[in-house]
Amino acid sequence: MLHYSIVFFVIAIIAGVLGFGGIAGSAVEIAKILFGVFIILSILSFIFGRRR
């Protein structure tokens, strides 16, 4: 999931450089959401993995 957020971030940077503002904004928002989900799942995995 972290890979997808990095890919969308790179797409946003490339789109921003080329002047596609709407696409860059959408890609940044998707990257933020995916990164947030990744962080939450990582923390939950760390917590519940410790209990065993």
UniProtKB/TrEMBL annotation:
Domain of life of the source: Bacteria
GO cellular component: plasma membrane
Pfam families per UniProt: DUF1328 (PF07043)
InterPro entries for the chain: DUF1328
Keywords: Cell membrane, Membrane, Transmembrane, Transmembrane helix
Residue spans crossing the bilayer: 7-24, 30-49
Family (UniProt): Belongs to the UPF0391 family.
NCBIfam families: PRK13682.1-1 (NF010226), PRK13682.1-4 (NF010229)
Name of the protein in question: UPF0391 membrane protein EV692_1694
Record organism: Lonepinella koalarum
